Amino acid sequence: MNRKYNINNLEDLHLQVRLLKSQYKGKEEALKGDAKQYLHQFTLNGFIKKYATPSAFLKIDDKFNISSKVLSMALPLIMNSTFFKGSGIVTKALVGLASGKLGKSLDAEHLSAIFNSVTSWFGKSKKTTEKQALEVDYGIPPDSETY
């Protein structure tokens, strides 16, 4: 960049120096603000604001799914430390591979559907006990005339 300034005397020179310093200070402040904003997105607070929303927590995008990543790492550990505790290394390796693949295929929608179906099993038994509690048996058979 070849800048040409129209400077004819000492006053023009001082005016141009002050103008360039003010431009320099303005650009410096803008650069500092941009750098702070850029670094703020990598702080803990920035990550929480960006990724801890309900929609972003379940799926950040189509390729990166937090729930499936966690399940693909945690499910093999849980399976090998509980159900296959005394088994050999080959069995643990096979269970780890299978449960890791299963964990990757599960996402938040599948987990919520599984949770809803399990709670509906227990919810139905609770409703039937409430219904049975409302029906009081007085010992009279239903086919009798007094019923």
Describe the structure.
The protein is mostly helical and 147 residues long. The protein contains six helices and no strands. It has helices at residues 10-40, 44-51, 54-58, 66-82, 89-105, 108-134. The protein is elongated.
Summarize the structure.
This protein is 71% helix and 0% strand. It is mainly alpha-helical.
Instruction: Report, as a whole number of angstroms, the end-to-end distance.
Output: 104 Å
What is the CA-based Rg, rounded?
Answer: 34 Å
Q: Largest sheet at a glance?
A: none
The portion of residues forming beta strands comes to: under 5%
What is the helical fraction, as a range of percent? Answer: over 70%
Shape: elongated
Topology:
Elements: H1 10-40, H2 44-51, H3 54-58, H4 66-82, H5 89-105, H6 108-134
Helix pairs in contact: 4-5
Name some characteristics of this structure.
elongated, 0% strand, 6 helices, 147 residues, single chain, mainly alpha, 71% helix
